[in-house]
Write a structure and sequence with these properties.
With 847 residues, this protein is mainly beta. It is built from nine helices and 39 strands. The protein has a 17-stranded antiparallel sheet. It has a five-stranded mixed sheet with strand order 10-15-16-13-14. A four-stranded antiparallel sheet has the order 3-2-5-6, with no helix packed on it.
């Protein structure tokens, strides 16, 4: 009874305890009174054993972790590790300690009376994740710039000819537009955060830190693709960073046994939805109806209409659906790659060889030369890293490709072939018969066609059109050499790097032109058809031209990365220079294009919680006047990991990571259009000898002297003040991870003010007598937002799955374009987005 009364006494002291707790207390007291005494005694024992718990927290490499949180589970007791990674905590022996630090897996251990050593495992989703940035890498968790990236495994899922075509939908803020499906020329144009200028909006593309094309790289060679979008990430590129930067990093070997990887894929390519065309009978019916609507007589007689309808005379009155006749139903595309990687402690390697083939969709009709669309490419790469000493790494990269592209020759290009196919009349020709091009005529003896129309197969050639083939062979070689030297002997965290790159390419263009005879059907009295020949079947005439390219790049830098307690500081000082030969085929082709510049960057973070970064680029281009050649482009960014604050802890089970960031900065764009060296004296031309009465500038001396002397004339006006475009960019972003990093989201809002866009001032009156020179007066504002979300999880140990979505919105508005005066306000481009069509808005509901 004593113990029952004790339980009742406890219940009486807590007036708001519900009756079920009373029943539990009564039952517990009645069944096991001794148990209550034991629990109370155990609690007293634990309180008596509370003592100073000491220990050290390290990572898996034995490096101490500064600022790690050590907390008693279920209690407010806690502390953090000091500069030596050690901690002291007055807690009961046997209590559970929860040890956590951003970038590491949280660990629960039992408190011991002796010195403890707690090792935290790296969290691969946080600390190990690094982002490729300009001239280096940064921890993703402390990155404050707007950067999106995609890894190798996501690039090789889609078998396409160009990396450009893979990026669509993979990265937020990146837009790709594929203007052509021609084999070998189907690489999509890439835009980063839309267009902010009407000149050249293409981003700077670098492969392993050197400006190169990415359209002909084998995706199996790529480790990652990073897109730098805001000023903080691109300011170091100075006059070349305003349109964004795409960084491609190729794979490198790791210390491990040799790993051989073989991949192969085959795809079937088919035409997309083709335009439905009228057949011969429908064409003639619609044509006659059109003339009847205009009050005119029909051109296609009933006899011709009957021929079209019953197909009784398919040679003279054909019904050819040109799209079906010319194009194949499908063609093959294959991609193969074999690579080997591995290495020892001193040498690491990655070697790759790949082949890509793509057939064309246009038929070749059994000719003895190849005039169909085909593209073949062979890629090779060898990346080698050698540890010369424990502090010196020497890296070699050798890569290149050999490609061969075939296409028909029409003098109109691939777009001209498509136009001819769709604009041709279905009765102009029955096609190719016994290797001969047959054309209908309007001079039949019995039934007359009113007209024939154009041919739909211009690339085959006929009496009036030259056909043939074009072939381009391309050979590209790239070489990189880099030395990375640690300089810890001077101060810990300091390193020096020097890099040199050389690129060359050579192309051979062959054109084979051939004329073909045209055959017209002639109906004989016995019903047979003979053919009247016009023109001759000529032999193929060949022309061959060559092209070449060459450029080099040099870079040297000092890097610093060191932690002082909970403070981490990194710094970069870099000098680079490049020169590209044969840059232009028309404007001063013998003068190479050159860039030279300095780069500076400083980053700071405290306890992986508060971050700040400052970047500056100082560089210039030879394309501008000496006084306008160099510029300074600063940018800064800040970040705050709010999830590491104490007030955020209640949300941690759901929102385990939240980072806020913002950036501001100035960047430039030197791809302004116009011509080269617009700062030089006004150019002039020399006339061909025609007199002014014939539109020339020639002159003569004397009255009866008919000899013409060539005259010089002013060609255009130059402007010594022309310079690059300037873009002031702002970016505000938040990164939030939910449910133990299974759901990762990123949101950015950005705004850009682009000035100094090159234009001609058409507000100037025409009476000045010359075309006004280019000036930097254009202004465009652009803005938008980006949202990226990705869910990744696993079921069991062997099944992983993920799903992601990227949403991007971009808008721009022309603020100033100096247009000629218009009659109506709606005709101005000013106030509208770049490329908007000029339309009159009749109602607010129409547009």
């Amino acid at each position: 009874m004593k113990h029952i009364l004790f339980s009742l006494g406890r219940w009486n002291t807590k007036l708001f305890v519900k009756p079920p707790i009373l029943i539990f207390c009564l039952a517990a007291s009645f069944l096991s009174p001794v148990g209550i005494q034991s629990a109370s005694a155990a609690e007293n024992i634990i309180q008596q054993q509370k003592k100073m718990i000491t220990g050290v927290v390290t990572d898996s490499q034995g490096e101490v972790i500064i600022g790690a949180n050590v907390k008693v589970q279920g209690d407010k007791l806690g502390t953090t590790t000091n500069i030596d990674g050690t901690f002291k905590l007055n807690a009961p022996v046997g209590a559970k300690l929860v040890v956590s630090f951003i970038g590491y897996e949280t660990k629960t251990v039992v408190a011991k009376g002796e010195a403890m050593k707690i090792v935290l495992a790296d969290n691969s989703t946080m600390l190990k994740d690094v982002e490729i940035v300009a001239y280096g890498v940064q921890k993703k968790v402390t990155l404050t710039g707007a950067v999106s990236s995609v890894k190798s495994e996501e690039l090789v899922r889609t078998p396409v000819s160009s990396v450009n075509n893979i990026l669509a939908g993979q990265l937020s803020g990146v837009t790709t537009i594929q203007y052509s499906g021609e084999p070998g020329s189907d690489a999509a144009s890439v835009f980063v955060r839309g267009q902010a200028t009407w000149t050249d909006s293409s981003p700077l593309i670098q492969v392993d830190g050197v400006e190169r094309s990415m359209s002909d790289i084998d995706p199996n060679e790529i480790e990652s693709v990073s897109v730098l979008k805001d000023a903080s990430a691109t300011a170091v590129f100075g006059v070349r960073g305003a349109n964004g930067v795409v960084l491609i990093t190729t794979k490198r070997g790791k210390e491990a046994k040799a790993k051989i990887s073989i991949t192969t894929s085959s795809s079937i390519l088919t035409p997309t939805k083709m335009v439905e065309q009228a057949n011969s009978y429908e064409y003639a019916t619609f044509y006659n109806q059109m003339r009847a609507n205009d009050g005119l007589t029909a051109m296609f007689s009933d006899a011709v209409m009957a021929k079209f309808k019953d197909h009784s005379d398919p040679i003279r009155f054909p019904d050819t659906r040109w799209a079906d006749y010319i194009m194949k139903d499908a063609t093959m595309q294959t991609q193969h790659n074999i690579n080997i990687s591995g290495g020892s402690k001193g040498v690491r390697y990655f070697i790759s060889a790949g082949a890509y083939t793509q057939g064309g969709l246009f038929k070749e009709f059994g000719q003895n030369y190849n005039f169909g669309y085909q593209y073949n490419r062979f890629n090779y790469r060898s990346n080698l890293d050698i540890d010369v000493t424990k502090s010196t790494i020497l890296s070699f990269n050798i890569a290149g490709n050999v490609s061969n592209a075939n296409k028909p020759y029409t003098g109109q290009g691939s777009s001209g072939m498509i136009k001819a196919m769709y604009q041709a009349t279905p009765f102009s020709s029955p096609g190719i018969i016994d290797g001969k091009y047959i054309s209908t005529a309007t001079d039949y003896d019995d039934v007359q066609l009113p007209f024939v129309g154009g041919s739909g197969i211009t690339y085959f050639g006929n009496a009036s059109t030259t056909g043939g083939f074009m072939q381009t062979n391309y050979n590209k070689l790239q070489f990189d050499l880099q030395l990375d030297q640690k300089m810890d002997m001077l101060t810990k965290g300091l390193s020096f790097k020097v890099k040199g790159s050389y690129n060359s390419d050579f192309s051979v263009y062959k054109n084979g032109a051939v004329s073909k005879a045209t055959y017209f059907p002639v109906l004989q009295k016995d019903g047979n058809i003979l053919y009247k020949k016009t023109g001759e079947n000529g032999s193929i005439s060949y022309t061959e031209t060559t092209g070449k390219g060459r450029d080099w790049y040099l870079e040297s830098s000092l890097n610093y990365n060191r932690s002082f307690g909970q403070n981490t500081i990194t710094a970069l000082l870099l000098y680079n220079q490049s020169k590209e030969y044969y840059y232009s085929s028309s404007d001063y082709p013998d003068i190479p294009r050159g860039y030279v510049g300095l780069v500076g960057r400083v980053t700071y973070d405290w306890n992986n919680r508060y971050m700040a970064e400052f970047n500056v680029g100082y560089n210039g281009s030879e394309n501008f006047a000496p006084s306008k050649r160099f510029g300074t482009f600063p940018a800064g960014s800040i970040g705050w990991i709010a999830s590491e604050e104490n007030f955020f802890k209640p949300l941690k089970p759901i929102v385990n990571f939240m980072k806020l960031r913002a950036s501001w900065g100035l960047v430039g764009n030197d791809k302004i259009g116009g011509s080269r060296f617009m700062y030089l004296a006004d150019p002039y031309g020399v006339n061909n000898g025609s007199f002014s009465s014939r539109g020339g500038y020639a002159y003569n001396f004397g009255i009866e002297n008919s000899t013409a002397y060539k005259g010089a004339y002013e060609d255009s006006k130059n402007n010594p003040d022309v310079t690059w475009e300037k873009a002031f960019k702002q970016d505000y972003g938040v990164d939030v991870n939910f449910l133990s990093d299974r759901l990762r989201t990123t949101f950015d809002y950005y705004y850009e003010h682009r000035t100094n866009i090159l234009l001609r001032d058409y507000t100037a009156p025409s009476i000045i007598g010359f075309t006004v020179p280019y000036t930097n007066q254009g202004v465009v504002n652009s803005w938008g937002w980006e949202l990226s979300a990705k869910w990744q999880d696993k079921i069991g140990d062997k099944f992983r799955y993920w799903a992601g979505v990227n949403l991007s919105y971009n808008q721009n508005k022309i603020i100033e374009e100096k247009e000629a005066p218009m009659n109506n306000d709606y005709q101005y481009a000013k106030g509208h987005r770049i490329g908007a069509r000029s339309m009159y808005q009749l109602s607010e509901f129409l547009l």
